[in-house]
# Entry
Amino acid sequence: MARTAWSSAFSHTTREADEEGGLSRVLSPCIEWLFADGGRPFSERVHVAAAAGFTRIEFWTVRDRDVKELERAIRKTRVTVTAFVSEPTGQLVDPSTHAEFLAGVERSSALASRLNAKNLIVVSGDARRGIDEKLQHDAIASALRLAAPIASQAGIGLLLEPLNSRVDHQGHYLDSTVEALALIREVNHPAVRLLYDMYHSIVMDEDPGQVLSGAGALVGHVHIADVPGRHEPGTGGVDWTRQLVALGSAGYSGPLGLEYMPSRETESSLTFIREVVEGEEA
# Structure
């Protein structure tokens, strides 16, 4: 099979994938949107994703869901949960919320262990009007320093995710990959890494190759969706071969989280990105 520069950059990951019977292991579908066709029950999506060849999945929340049923589905299929959101999400920019946030990290870490999850996603919360940005930045760093040993003790990582403040999360404080990386360097704990969402980054006019240059070791996970629209790769204007090669060049060799809204049936929506990752001709 011919390989693109993307596959070469990810040689270690793809070699493992070939040995295990397919590159679906390097893709991690978010079952909030993927495999939800026809209103499919949440736990059933785990089974359908596994049947489609995926060994990893992810989601946002277990709120209002049957956790025991979800746990059974995960155990039966033996999938790994790449990440889900630590709850309550809180306002890390506000120190008065930190106690609640830390209690949530402790509970979520215990739940992650039950669900074979490797990481918890954390976000900054909305910017506080009238409060100096440095104070808000420092508050996030403080919260992460306190949360890191809690998650680490349970064997769980913390993924700090910047979100775009232009389209999907207006008012959100942390909308810059550069600032997120600065925070991670300041916290300086191996449990705290970046969740780089390429969709959010490109919406904020960032160049993935530039903002991630030399920072691959600090990236714990990556999300992808096309721009505009947040649909599956291949529906927008992103040059996926170029951008995925940039990820590899930055030193990232982990899975790709498919966090997009399918514009068609899930399995059909996967065709393009599978071809790009596998280096096949479309």
The chain has one domain: 5-277. The first strand starts at residue 27 and ends at 29. The domain at 5-277 is CATH 3.20.20.150 (TIM Barrel). Confidence is low (pLDDT under 50) at residues 1-6, 11-23.
